[in-house]
Amino acid sequence: MKLDVHDAKILEILQKDARTSLKDIAEEAKLTPPTVSSRMKSLEELGIILGYHVDIPPDSLGQRVMFFVLKAKPADLEEAAEALARISLVREVHLASGGRIIAVAVLRDVSDQERLTNEMARIPTIQEYDNYSVVKVKKRENWAIVAEGVDVSLACYYCRKPIQGTPYKIRLGGRDHYLCCPICEKAYKEKYAKLEAGAQKKPTKD
């Protein structure tokens, strides 16, 4: 599944300014506002658009950014990364090759750094780490490279495995659901029907 020229244009516009109105997006993308709205909803359902956020540089609020490169045994990577992700000062956690985890933290003051160090020391699966303070930001761009024809990476709604090739698309509950194969499609429909039936049986409060 690939981005078409219209979806790529909508994403490009939103990356530059998420506040752009439907009317302005439609004019620039040469589409109607209802078409833009429908495409944006589909992009949200696909997990391509996760939200519409305000971008606040930490240094504008007097906060310091630190990068951490942490080492753990391959068998412990997931557990260590999940423990890091639960620390509120840690803003990003990435699993990397070579048994490494890359984490980004934002600190307001020295006490935050002490707190972070103490919390990380309580994660037994972390073997060692190096840390680096950001001194100056020379470039800061959105990570995703948006262009027509870019492959869209989807996970099957049932088995959660990456979908290879064209997904099986079904419409349930007013939204599209994507499956990897006929077996998952059938199983997902059955699961959805059971969940829907169970929801209808729940007693309503007076």
Q: Any low-confidence stretches, pLDDT <50, length ≥5?
A: none
Please report the total strand number as a whole number: 6
Rg for CA atoms: 22 Å
- The chain-level structural class is alpha+beta
* CATH 2nd-level architecture of the largest domain: 2-Layer Sandwich
Instruction: Name the strands of the widest sheet in spatial order.
Output: 2-3-1-4
Distance between the termini: 47 Å
Q: How does this structure look, described?
A:
This protein has 206 residues and is an alpha+beta fold. It folds into three domains: 1-54, Arc Repressor Mutant, subunit A, CATH 1.10.10; 58-133, Lrp/AsnC effector binding domain/regulation of amino acid metabolism (RAM) domain (Alpha-Beta Plaits), CATH 3.30.70.920; 154-206, no CATH class. The chain contains six helices and six strands. The strands form two sheets. Strands 2-3-1-4 form a four-stranded antiparallel sheet, with helices on one face. A two-stranded antiparallel sheet has the order 5-6. A hairpin with a 3-residue loop joins strand 2 (90-96) and strand 3 (100-107). Helix 1 crosses helix 2 and helix 2 (22-29) crosses helix 3 (33-45). It is globular, with a radius of gyration of 22 Å. The termini are far apart.
Put the structure in a nutshell:
The protein is of the alpha+beta class. It is 36% helix and 20% strand.
